[in-house]
Design a protein that fits this description.
Elements: H1 8-27, E1 31-37, H2 42-55, E2 62-66, E3 69-76, E4 79-86, E5 91-96, H3 100-107, E6 112-115, E7 117-118, E8 121-122, H4 127-137, E9 157-160, E10 169-176, E11 181-188, E12 191-198, E13 202-204
Antiparallel strand pairs: 1-5, 1-6, 2-5, 3-4, 7-8, 9-10, 9-13, 10-11, 11-12
Length: 205
């Protein structure tokens, strides 16, 4: 018979807390990796991989599968509508602890063509790269910065001096003086990736 101190509610709370702690321990060594997919198969790969994780009992090594998307406004037939646009077409992100078993499960998922990395070794994303992607997806709140102006031109090389990409070198692609924003191309995943930055986040080389 349960006592007031250890009633059913208390036991459930203890179990939930223990499970959360165990989950935290399992995810402590996890990192985010990028996988190539066939074009247009990003969502199918996510579904297939999640099913394989469940059926093969890999929940303690593969934690999250993400297709990076952002909301954007589209005008069609004179009507405005909000659509979800893939930020990195042909790529899917996976939060996982890299082992031979987890590599095998991901690599052999239908639609996956391989991991992003040097040679045959998958390269994990840096924490600041993950943070930047989460910002773009609206999963993290961007830090507000004052609007400022800087004397730069399109095509000019700059250095990012604050934020998740601090220290990165990029090329200015667009300048939005009214909003105090720059579109900068930096090298990410082995290809040029556009970032929207404030004037205050960059400096001339």
């Amino acid at each position: 018979m349960s006592t007031p101190e250890s009633g059913p509610g208390g036991v459930v709370e203890e179990v939930v807390a223990a499970e959360a702690e165990a989950e935290q321990r399992r995810r402590r060594d996890s990192q985010w990796f990028v996988i190539h997919t066939y074009s247009g198969y990003e969502n199918k790969v996510k579904t297939n991989l999640e099913k394989r994780v469940n059926s093969m009992g890999m929940e303690d090594q593969i934690f999250q599968v993400l297709v990076p998307v952002e909301e954007t406004l589209e005008v069609k037939d004179g009507k405005k509508r909000t659509i979800q646009r893939k930020i990195f077409p042909g790529y899917v992100l996976v939060e996982m602890t890299m082992t031979d078993d987890s590599w095998y499960v991901v690599r052999n998922t239908p639609g996956v063509t391989g991991f992003v990395g040097s040679g045959s070794k998958p390269t994990p994303l840096l924490p600041e790269e993950v943070e930047q992607i989460m910002y773009q997806m609206g999963l993290l709140e961007a830090r507000p910065r004052p609007v400022a102006r800087v004397d730069v031109e399109v095509g000019e090389n700059i250095r990012v001096r604050s934020g998740p990409f601090d220290g990165f070198i990029g090329v200015i692609d667009q300048i939005d003086a009214e909003r105090g924003k720059l579109r900068v191309l930096v090298s990410m995943f082995g290809r040029e990736t556009p970032l929207e930055l404030d004037f205050t986040q960059v400096e001339k080389l």
